[in-house]
Amino acid sequence: MNKESVCRWGFLGTAVIARKNWQSILDAGNARLIGVASRDVAKARDYIAENQTQVPHPVEPKAMTYDELLASPDIEAVYIPLPTGVRKEWVLKAARAGKHVLVEKPVGCSAADVQEMITVCAQNGVQLMDGVMFMHSARLARLRQTLDDGESVGDIRRIASGFSFNGGDEFMKSNIRSSQALEPFGCLGDLGWYTILFSLWALKFQMPRQVRATMLNLVKRDGEVGVPTELSAEMIFDGGVSAGFYNSFITGNQLWAHVSGTTGNVFIPDFVLPFYGNQQHYTVRNSVFEQQGGTFYMHENAEFITVEEPSNNAPGSQESKLFRDFSALVLSKKTDDFWTQSMLKTQMIMDACLTSSLQDGKWIHI
């Protein structure tokens, strides 16, 4: 690949999720990882050595400090997996250095922070995008066709989703996602970003009129207000359409979504991180009720729709497509406001949910 055909990347941080994206960027087909930065260059060297052993890049990336990476003329785009509490500072520095920015979610500590990031990126002519992989999957594109065909679901009336995992006691004590200073939204930020974004996507980014959230459990560290570790929320849209979601750090693994409409419904069992395999699927049901005298029948009338797409860490997976799509934008020398507006709307709703959860489930008008 010549220099003009690939987007040249740097990783600003060595978080666990960055280990996954080490392979994603290799599989994108139009991207190359030039450098990895850490506050401690030795840590960056160790990170590179370990990942290079498992998934070797043709040219080994360089270990750098944050400032060295942002100053490098060999890097066009940066991936920032730093904690939410310190993320804005580095997004702004990257944008002002002329680097395109792919940032982990939740994007900021408030919608005002996200708007500032969007503004500064626009002023510097660089793309800003959140690192939500399912938004780039082939299955989501196929699901859009189903939702829009007018028959499978009809008019959407209800969306429900759940995303949770049981982190255990040690997670609650030491993981950054239970720290208010580093991850102030807790499970709402780590998991709720996905459930909120899916609902917005299904409704073509119509904003809700009002939201409310109930804090079912929280964790506090010394001197902190605490962050949600289990939360449920409800969003009300124009026309009485509703969407509810549940997030938790203390409930077993689940990552499902269900869309109900006037003619049928769709169930996706694994919308965030697909179950392992080379195919992804969802189920459409248009159940039919039949009465014959005193006998009642409910016919399932289900269609199992399959999409050929690997589940994870492979060419053609949603992870690799995220980096491919972002790199294509950089190489096109264009930016796409869809991504910044979708993240801003998601952040606005997340902010409102946290506010509501801290006020005993008060309805918050958007």
Can you put this structure into words, describing what you see?
With 366 residues, this protein is α/β, with parallel strands linked by helices. The chain folds into 2 domains: 3-134 and 318-335, Rossmann fold (3-Layer(aba) Sandwich), CATH 3.40.50; 144-315 and 345-365, 2-Layer Sandwich (Dihydrodipicolinate Reductase, domain 2). Helix content is 35%, strand content 29%. It has helices spanning 16-27, 41-54, 66-71, 84-96, 111-123, 138-148, 168-174, 186-190, 192-202, 318-332, 337-357, and strands at 7-12, 31-37, 62-64, 77-80, 100-103, 128-130, 156-166, 210-219, 227-236, 242-248, 250-261, 265-268, 279-285, 288-292, 295-299, 302-308, 364-365. It has a 9-stranded mixed sheet with strand order 16-13-12-11-7-10-9-8-17. Strands 3-2-1-4-5-6 form a 6-stranded parallel sheet, sandwiched between helices. A hairpin with a 7-residue loop joins β8 (210-219) and β9 (227-236). The mean pLDDT is 96.
